[in-house]
Amino acid sequence: MPDTTFLIVRPALVVLAFGALGCSSDLVLPDSPGGAAQTVAITKAGGDVQEGPVGETLRLPLVVRVVDEEQHPVIGLSVSFELSDPAAGAVNPTNATTNSAGEADANWTLGTVPGTYTVVARLVGVTGEDKATEFQGVAGPGAAAELTAQTPLLQPGSREQKVQTAPVVQVADRFGNPVPDVPVVWQVLAGEGTATPLNGATDPEGNAAADWTLGNRIGVHKLSAAVEGVDASVVFEARVLF
Description:
- The protein has strands at about 5-10, 15, 25-30, 40-45, 50-55, 60-70, 80-85, 90, 95, 105-110, 115-125, 135-140, 145-150, 155, 170, 185-190, 195, 200, 205-210, 210-215, 220-225, 235-240.
- The chain is mainly β.
- The protein has two domains: about 5-140, Immunoglobulins (Immunoglobulin-like), CATH 2.60.40; about 145-240, Immunoglobulins (Immunoglobulin-like, Sandwich).
- The protein has a five-stranded antiparallel beta sheet with strand order 1-4-6-10-8, with no helix packed on it. A five-stranded mixed beta sheet has the order 5-12-11-7-9, with no helix packed on it.
- The chain is rod-shaped, with a radius of gyration of 29 Å.
């Protein structure tokens, strides 16, 4: 059985409340004869290897299933869900109890830093080797939320010449993480110059640049950069004195 950890359980009494099913009494599962140990297996039943944006809850819950040697669900066992790294975010709940299908689940909200993270699920209060079932999640950058200049906003220039420092902007999400592959629109606002490309995209570092050639005019030349979904654009200026 893939991703299976067999553990030995020495149960006393396993109690399952059926109040939610309309039954007022508790169901008590008796000990195995002579108090013998019971072998159980914990497996991943869903939610492994998901991707999502930082700060968001993954679409599918993390689900484990606990069964005995005869593949019958084991009810009423406690399962802990633990983050391997504080930057991984948060899981809720951190402890869950297996239901009538032998399953327990938790929701994983990713942290604010992109990366690959792990949540470890293990049975609580079970004797045997300390092995665990692991879930992986990949946190990627969120949606574009900020646009900032990475080069000076103001510089001198000469007519019909490229500016000395090509304008560069960076796109980041709401947590300040660079966002790649975001379309950036460049537009000459004053000076009748040219910029290429007029429509570009951010690189893996969230940056986008434009080659700006000034027009044949004395005065202030302007070039803007804008990103859909970000309210404020960035405006660069070049001052031509002669």
